[in-house]
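Hello,

I think I submitted the S-adenosylmethionine job twice by accident. Can you confirm which output corresponds to this input? Input:
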Amino acid sequence: MMLADSYGRVATDLRVSLTDRCNLRCAYCMPPEGLDWLPAPEVLTGDEIVRLLRVAVSMLGVREVRFTGGEPLLRKDLTSIVARTAALEPRPEISLTTNGIGLTRLAGALRDAGLDRINVSLDTLRPEVFRKLTRRDRLDDVLAGLEAAAAAGLTPVKVNTVLMRGLNEDEAVPLLKYCLSCGYELRFIEQMPLDAQHGWKRAEMVTAGEIFAALESAFSLIPDDAHARGSAPAETFLIDGGPVRVGVIASVTRPFCGSCDRVRLTADGQVRNCLFARQESDLRTALRSGATDAQIAARWQAAVAGKLPGHGINDPSFLQPDRPMSAIGG
Ligand code: SAM
Ligand code: SF4
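Support: Only one job matched these inputs. Its output is below.
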């Protein structure tokens, strides 16, 4: 059995949101006051998550599991969830996307539990811009978290950056220089219409084209054919002849839906076949009402089978999904 859709794509990469809560309030993600968090009983327990992962890995062909959120490091049982995921057969690749706050304490334990890779989000190197963009004064914690990840051997450490007009749009080159000096691999992500406050405006988005232009003013970028895009959303480039690379994820201006191999599980146990899906399939109710593994697997397959060909951001009729990125799992 596998998670196939009617356009020939097969989902093998599962993104799991472990919580919708966060200790930052990034402007492209959440309003300053935060959101109405999910009530605790609606959030999947560690046991429920691991059971769904076992179904995904052993019955549905999922090979990669990425934990995200919200902020996954806020989940007290994260290390145990990672360890139990690493014990599944066949063992999936396990990665984590985090804002980095708390990694100084957790990086070693996560590596020991079986975490293979990590992405840390970092949008600016200027404390005052960090404060404006995330509405919290935690830049030093993020930088220390990055160092801790590298020291724990979670390498190559990847950094995710979203540029916003008027805030950090001038930091592409300084961020890349910083990442090069620390040995981190940087990837820029175009801002997508996924913020809870529906404030995204196409005209304000910093495009991949602009990012390339900024980077090429300081570096020579050569498309990295050895790491052709495949199903990976990042287009990667060798910097000044390599071997270090930089990636750009142009979800809006160069969509990659045709080769998408992802499926998502929300913190409250809903399958989403796309970040921009307007429908979800409820696995939590099935789980909690005694469904067998085979019944859960069948429900999951049906959810992926109905995946649309593309996200439609560029269609005039595009409607932003009701739930924001922090609830879906970015
Ligand atoms: N809290 C963790 C973090 O920030 O890395 C994990 C969840 S966050 C939703 C996952 C990734 O989505 C982050 O790299 C973040 O920068 C990115 N993101 C959030 N909102 C976005 C948006 N509207 N457009 C593009 N990327 C976004
Ligand atoms: Fe939190 Fe990540 Fe959203 Fe920022 S992008 S508010 S760190 S969930």
